[in-house]
Structure formats: C-alpha cells, structure tokens
Amino acid sequence: MDSSIVNLWPLLGVAVIIVGFVLRFNPFVVVVVTALVTAALAGFPLQKVLAELGTGFVKTRNLPLILVLPLAVIGLLERHGLRQHAQNWIGHIKSATTGRLLIVYLGARQLTAAIGLTSLGGHPQMVRPLLAPMAEGATETRYGKLPEALRYRLRAFSAATDNVGLFFGEDIFVAFGAIVLMTTFLHEAGIDVEPIHVAVWGIPTAICAFLIHAYRLRRLDQYIAKEMANAPAAASTTREGGAA
C-alpha cells in the first residue's frame, strides 16, 4: 500500500460526535465513543487507546475542583445581590440598549480571546450573573417590565454573543489547541504551514463574525422596540376579554 495515501476514515469520528450531540446523548459518552471509533479507524491498538484515556484522566483529575470552586463563589455573589447590582448599574446609563451593550461585550470578548484570555468570559462566570441581567436591566430602563418570552430571548442573545466572541476570537490566538491540531494534521499530510499563518488567516473570519453578529444585535434593538410597543395593546386586549 502506498504510504503517501492519507487515511481519511478517522474523520468519521466527526460524524459520530455530530450525531451524538444532535441526538442529545450524554456528552461524556459521545466524546469517549468518538475517541474509540476514531482510534479504531486509524488502526491504533485498543490497549494503547485505553492507556491514553487513563493518562488523560489522571492529568485532569483536579479539573472538576477548578470548575466547581468558581461556581460556588458566583453563587455566593448572586445570593448577595450581584445580579441586582448589575441591573441597577446599567440602568443609570440612559443611552445603553441591549444591542449596544452586547456589541461592546462581543468586541471585548473577541479581543481578549485573541490574546489567549479565554477564561475572562463564559456562561457561568459572566453571562448568567452579569451580562444577561445587564441586558435585561437596559431594556427595563427604557420600556418597563418585560414579557417572559422577551426576557428569555435576551438571555439567549447574551449567551450567543459570548459564544461567537470566544469561538472566532480564540482562532486568532497562535497557541490555540485547534490551530496546533490543524498544523499538525497538515504536517503529517505533507503540507507545512506555520501556526502564525493559520492564526492570521483567522482574522478575516473573526471580523466577518463580528460584523454579522453586531448587525443581528442592532436588529435585536428594533425587535425589542416593536415587541414592547405591542405589549400594552396585547395586555389591554386581554383585560377587556376577561372583563367581558
């Protein structure tokens, strides 16, 4: 067999992980099954695969403690009014809107991720206790009490903004794991690419992602104004129907 032929069968592991997440299987099980399938298709011995899984487990056994401790601290801060303080603070900025607030956060998230500071944001430590309450507070300052559907929409956009900023920002960081993985894979295929070149070509994608999502956030402000303009009419219609 020609040694220059690249074995593409291990790429079926990507399909396995996609199907597993689409069907909402347990993420841990999906990742382990994907690793086993990919290793089998690549021709790795089962004993070696199990040894690597065991080594990875030993190296990351302290990871749950690292994840749990910040959650406890954030929970304690929330109990003492962190969310309320965030809402009150943003309420004093009269020019603030949800769209403008999230655009600023999107830019900051991308820039910090681009220099490797990926832990400065995140859903548990930033979106839930600070960003989402600030988005709700900015809207309540302008329009008053929010319908529940709109409140959940603001929370969803807050989480999505963090995702977009992180995902496209970290692709610019030269030491990001995905960049190292891509350059290693290309090197094994006989294509020599420097990591810095991959990172640089991630910049146009990051800029496009910022512009597209910023446009969606501007549209979000328009959507909020339209929904809140119709809210009083809907409420009055409901009261009239109940009185009748």
Automatic annotation (TrEMBL):
Q: Which Pfam families match?
A: DUF969
What keywords is this UniProt entry annotated with?
Answer: Membrane, Transmembrane, Transmembrane helix
Against InterPro entries, the record matches this protein to:
DUF969
Where does the chain cross the membrane? 6-23, 28-46, 58-77, 164-186, 198-217
Could you tell me what this protein is called? Answer: DUF969 domain-containing protein
What organism is recorded for this protein? Comamonas squillarum
Q: What high-level taxonomic lineage is stated for the organism?
A: Bacteria, Pseudomonadati, Pseudomonadota, Betaproteobacteria, Burkholderiales
